[in-house]
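Final report, closing paragraph on structural work. Over the funding period we assembled a curated collection of sequence-structure pairs, and we close with a single example.
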Amino acid sequence: MSKTVVHVLRHGEVYNPDQILYGRLPGFRLSELGVQMAKAAAQGLAEREIVHVVASPLERAQQTAEPIAAQFGLPVGVDERLIESANWFEGKKVSPGDGSFRDPRNWWVLRDPMTPSWGEAYRVIAERMFAAVQAARVAAEGREAVLVSHQLPIWTLRRYVERKRLWHDPRKRQCGLASLTSFHFDGAKVVGIGYSEPAAHLIALSATARTAKGA
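Its predicted structure, as stored:
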């Protein structure tokens, strides 16, 4: 059987000065830091045998894919199955203290965290993501592919492959900005999952700079 790797990359930081949950809304692009994160992800894959690059149709995912595709002389494909999950709170502020979660009129939306009631069902997300990964595996058979998606879909996919319950604590997701969750296949079977953060140094530098600026 052929051994194939499908890397699922979360997009880089997004420019979002109003701190809303942007979800599938158009017009949300990478920040300057996010662009650097995308380049760091490309550098982290430079020695790999990438032959297939596909991204969610949203701008931030397409932008994150561009330096990788350019590095290997490939086009960026689009797969709707990689899109961000649908969410009832899209376009609203959800930050602690002043977000929509504090408004009692919205509490009915939060009634079922296991499905969840506020957005696309975890099972639907998992199945569409796994179908996209399998399509990429076939396209890159014996070599490697990169898919660019979003945090919740990637984490749901990983839990699905690991046969864990799909509902979870969002604070415990292992899926940082511009991180790679890599699915190793032997034929059509997943035989291993890897995780790396090629842009971690940029996130650390940014945090240090913000701390120094506020001091």
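The beta strands are 3-10, 50-55, 77-78, 144-149, 180-186, 189-196. The first strand starts at residue 3 and ends at 10. We thank the funder for supporting this effort.
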